[in-house]
Design goal:
single chain; mainly alpha; about 50% helix
Length: about 220
């Protein structure tokens, strides 16, 4: 990792932590968090048409937000707002957000409980699921994302994420087209054959028992 990239990554992570920390009310203060107020309505108006009212998207290539963590959400919104992630629709939305909006939306997203994927039309391919599980163990996916793939803090929940979005993301990290605030994913995936990434996406999208654990901040 270059010193320049490391500096940028540390800065982005530090900014995200500062934004979230500043959302917490002083000890003993009364009132509600922004996410528990108007941001529920703003999410419904701005985000739900693509990401789903409950956070589970039915739109191709659009990630599931249900069960996601506020630190991860606010970091991604910040990356979109600052032009470090390339998605015209998200950039158009995020560039209008003030810091308090990044906090409010990310805090609301963190209140959305995990929503299980719809039952597949056909049972999962047992051999491919076993191969995907082995890949997740071999390439240490479970070390960062957890044995239940629910993530935590800056590490996203990936269990039962949309398969098409997982494929896009994994291949993006492998080629370096998908930016992150560290190089961890690019380094982890750089030597994995593309077909194995597709198998990982297949497995993670069908990960069993993924809706049991509530989201965290």
């Amino acid at each position: 990792m270059s010193k320049g990239f490391l500096f940028i990554a540390q800065a982005i992570a530090g900014i995200a932590m500062t934004l979230l920390a500043s959302a917490a009310p002083p000890a003993g203060a009364q009132g509600t968090q922004p996410a528990q107020g108007g941001y529920a309505q703003r999410y419904a108006a701005v985000c739900a048409s693509c990401h789903g009212a409950n956070g589970r998207s039915d739109m191709a290539g659009t990630p599931v937000l249900a069960g996601q963590h506020s630190f991860y959400a606010i970091t991604q919104l910040f990356l979109f707002r600052e032009g470090r992630r390339d998605n015209p629709a998200m950039s158009a939305v995020a560039k209008t957000m003030k810091d308090e909006d990044l906090r409010g939306f990310s805090e609301f997203i963190a209140t959305l409980p995990p929503v299980p994927a719809a039952p597949p039309a056909a049972p999962p391919d047992a051999a491919r699921m076993a191969r995907g599980q082995a890949l997740a163990q071999t390439h240490r996916c479970v070390i960062c994302h957890g044995a239940d793939l629910s993530g935590g803090q800056q590490v996203p929940r990936i269990a039962q994420q949309r398969e098409d979005y997982l494929q896009l993301t994994l291949h993006g990290f492998r080629t370096g087209k998908r930016p992150g605030y560290t190089q961890a994913m690019t380094e982890a995936l750089s030597g994995i054959p593309p077909e194995d990434l597709d198998t990982l996406a297949y497995y993670v999208a069908r990960f069993p028992g993924a809706a049991a654990r509530p989201p965290g901040k």
